[in-house]
Amino acid sequence: MSNPRPGGARSTGAGRVPEVWGRIPPRNKNFTGRTELLARLRDGIADQVTAVVPHALHGLGGVGKTQMAVEYCYRFRSEYDLVWWIPADQPVLVRSSLAGLAPFLGLPPATASGIEEAAGAVLDALRRGDPFDKWLLIFDNADQPEDLNDVLPRGPGHVLITSRNHRWEGVVDTVAIDVFSRDESIEFLNKRVPKGISKADADRLADELGDLPLALEQAGALQAETGMGVREYLKLLSERTSQLLAEGKPTEYPASMTAAWSLSVASLNEKLPEAVQLLRRCAFFGPEPIPRDAFSQPRLELGTELTTLIGDPIRLSRVIGELGRYALARLDIPARTLQVHRLIQALLRDELPPEEQERMRHEVHLMLAGYAPADPYDPTSWPRYSSLLGHILPAAVGESSAPEARRLSIDIVRYLYGIGDLGFARALAEKFLPIWTKQSGEEHKDVLELRMEHANIMRELGEYQLSSELNQATLAVAERVLGEDDPLTLRFFRGECADLRALGEFERAREHDERLLARYEATFGPEHPGTILTINNLAADCGLNSQYVRAKQLLEGAYQSLLAAGGADKSTLLLIWSGLARSVRLCGDYSEACDLGEDAYAFGLEEFGIEFSWTLRTAKDLSIAWRRLGDLERAGELAEDVHTRTVRQYGLDHPDTLAAAMCLANYLRTRGEIDAAMDLAADTVRRYPRVYGHTHPYNYGCMGNLAIMHRVQNDPQAARKLNEQALAGLESKLGRDHHYALTVATNLASDLAALGDYENAARLGRDTLRRLRAVMGDMHPMTLCCASNLTADLRALGEKTEAEKLFEQTKAAYAQEMGLEHPDAVVFLEGRHLDADFDPPPI
User: For residue 176, which phi and psi values (nearest 5 degrees)?
Assistant: First the structure.
């Protein structure tokens, strides 16, 4: 296992490098003093699990909290087997940083297990101290304590937090960081200025700068780069401070810091004006590392000077290097990023008039948009979107009405939707929508498009009624403003069909998708992505209406169309591939369904990772196919894994969690773990109406599963009552000749037989078998299940001739379709009843 190492770490003389040493900022070679504070910190952190390093005395940045945490890492690294640095100023990014630890703990990486799963596994491993019990995690620049409640590891290791928020003092042990002592300031300046500085001059300089470490860093860097003498520097500093104070600046920052920074900027401006121009733009990014390639797209809208600079890579490299040498930016050469301290960013912004701020913020939006990949659903683009995420809110991208900023905002929401971070996607959509509506009005296309993304997010969250209301309200506006055949309007129509499926209106959804497909084909042709997605949705409708053969045919055509186009749209390919495997299973070919499902699942894992919604859905369907085929070991392992993941990722009441729970309950019952199956199924049946409403077919189908478990537990009366209720509900919603209704009717006949009412059991079985043959065909496993049970009931009634004839027909069919070794065939040959369970497919 390879571990991240700091450059040159072994040569510092500070002892061994930990087994895992990751993302630690470079050590400041000019680090000075803090001996007493470091000793206090070490004493406290060695005795307690959590130590905190906030700036509590003045509440300002620039006193060296982060540098002290870095120094602690290097100075005491020999005490640890694992040291890991986590930027914490944006809580949404913390889990990603934690997940990055997974491979170094012998855990599956986030690319295989998903961010939530990987982060959870990391926290669990740290808690257990396996494989390392001597670990140190640093959460840098945290804000509110509650932001980190769920991600602070407990266990044998240590946690270090840096924060400007004094509220941490009431939560954990704290060490307050103040400005340097005068001796520390003098020592620091002697290190920072290579040619040396007299003690008297250093004392005067420190006094003028208020002993603030960041201000001393600025002053030392400027003198080191320009050779400016202390007397000249102090004269300029005095003039600059007086000027700033006369102008009423600064109100939030010490005058010494502002003056020192201003002096550095003025000196750099004389030497290389382009560097200051670039620095000013950096002030409008977030405080996270800025991708170097964000400055790689020259465009006229950025102005002549900046466009010329960006178009000249040699000069741009020199400019960025100068920012580092003047200590105005921190450069990470291997990662190709630069980072500007948030205090310097604030000072840079504050010195500009509002109109200039708006202009530069707009230019930053253009650079961020130029750096963003074209397709936010393409997994290969996700690393770039991840590096953009930390700048979207600080740069106020969502508050701009510029087309480029609007497009980037929508694409960021889509990226978050794609990776499954639905909560953050929803928060951004709901933050941007009121702003955009006020700026542009409810009928603007950007507003309509973001409203559609919002509705999609709510649907994915299982908020089906709200999704339907949002989609319907905006669809009417889109039809009126854009026209019926506009691509965005057609996407709203597609959303309407999805809402109908979610609300249990399966036939209406099919009719709507039939019409929508005709419009797509007429307007855009058969190969258009929207056409292919609509074919997929129509296939889902067909499956929900028991038209499995047609669903399979539609998906085979869509799959071939995508492959012919190079399969570029990988998310759509997985969607169709997964649906095709499901349709093949529902047509009764379990072996082929397993083959297709295994391939689709492997594709989903490779391209998107396990946390991706359609990877999980494909895995759940594969578990069902394995169970139907009789491979219970693999089916159970996958069913348990998917259920665990969906609970952790979505919560207990999400549609995918409910479907995974029912899949697991069916497996447990098949395995003979009846009590566990009953408990899980009963809980799931109680939850279903919260998501779908009380009359949705899925509620009744799952009620039928619970009825099976009552009968297996020797309570056929309770089973009969549930199945009669389920059958009545399904017949009212879908009609008697629907697959779901016929499945429940088959089980109800078994209830009657268990109660000794063989006459009514046989009567119901004959009627159900006739209907199944018409709907599903003579050889479908569901048809054979009903025939098998009817054979047993006819024998119990003494109808030997009819029973033997049906027995021979059913035996021949099992031998031909599934083999007499299949578990269903074995139960049939033994004369026992088969149970027909239900697994709700994705909407």
Answer: -80, 135
How does DSSP classify residue 528? S
Residue of 650, 736, 655 whose CA lies nearest to 691? 655
Mean pLDDT by 10-residue block, N- to C-terminus, for the chain (843 residues)?
A: 38 61 75 77 63 33 77 87 86 82 84 73 90 89 82 84 74 71 84 78 82 79 76 76 53 64 84 92 92 85 83 90 85 86 81 92 95 91 91 95 96 90 90 97 96 96 93 94 94 95 96 96 91 96 97 95 78 95 97 97 91 92 97 97 90 94 97 95 95 94 97 96 97 96 98 97 97 96 97 96 96 95 95 96 90
How far apart CA 556 and CA 577 sit, in angstroms, is 9
Nearest Cα to Cα of residue 507 among 544, 539, 471, 472: 544
Amino acid in the structure at residue 300: L
Phi, psi for residue 761 in degrees, rounded to 5: -65, -45
Cα–Cα distances (Å) from 379 to 15, 110, 216, in that order, read 41, 13, 44
> Residues 140, 330: contact at Cβ < 8 Å?
no
H or E segment and range at residue 727: helix 716-734
* Closest by Cα among 335, 304, 338, 305 to 320: 338
Torsion sign (Cα): 11, 12, 18, 24: negative
Cβ-Cβ contacts under 8 Å for 114 (sequence gap 6 or more): 420, 609, 610, 611, 612, 645, 649
Write the CB contacts of 54 (distance below 8 Å, at least 6 apart in sequence): 65, 161, 162, 163, 164, 165, 166, 168, 169, 174, 176, 177
CA-to-CA dists, residue 156 to 23, 88, 130, 206, 719, angstroms: 21, 22, 10, 41, 51
One-character DSSP codes across 114-159:
-HHHHHHHHHHHHHHT-S-SSEEEEEEEE--GGGGTTTS--SSSEE
Residues with Cβ within 8 Å of residue 801, at least 6 apart in sequence: none
Spatial distance between the Cα atoms of 506 and 734, rounded to a whole number of angstroms: 8
Contact 635, 626 (CB under 8 A): yes
Q: Taking the chain, what is the end-to-end CA distance rounded to the nearest angstrom?
A: 42
Instruction: Please report the pLDDT score of residue 303 as a whole number.
Output: 78
Q: How many other CB atoms sit within 10 Å of the CB of residue 37?
A: 18
Q: Residues near 511 by Cβ (< 8 Å), separated by ≥ 6? A: none
Burial of 655 per CB tally in 10 Å (0-12, 13-18, 19+): buried
Predicted TM-score (pTM) of the model is: 0.81
- Give CA–CA dist 77/644, Å, rounded: 36
CA-wise closest residue to 659 among 699, 704, 712: 699
Six-digit token pair at 358?
């708006």
Total residues found in the chain within this entry: 843
Cβ count near 362 (within 10 Å): 17
Judge whether 276 and 333 are in contact, CB under 8 Å.
no
Query: d(Cα 89, Cα 686) in Å, to the nearest integer?
Result: 40
Starting at the edge strand that comes first in sequence, how are the strands of the sheet with 330-332 ordered? 290-291, 337-339, 330-332
Q: What is the DSSP letter of 17?
A: P
For residue 85, give the nearest of 332, 308, 262, 326 by alpha carbon.
332
* CA gap 547, 206 in Å, rounded: 82
Position 53 scores a pLDDT of 37
User: What's the confidence (pLDDT) of residue 12?
Assistant: 39
Residue 38, φ and ψ in degrees, nearest 5: -65, -35
CB 656 within 8 A of CB 843: no
- The Cβ-side half-sphere exposure at 105, using a 13 Å CA radius, reads 30
Give the C-alpha distances (Å, rounded to integers) separating 826 from 256, 720, 831. 86, 25, 9
Q: Quick one: which of 676, 667, 684, 677 has its CA closest to 620?
A: 667
Do residues 839 and 665 touch, judged by C-beta distance below 8 A? Answer: no
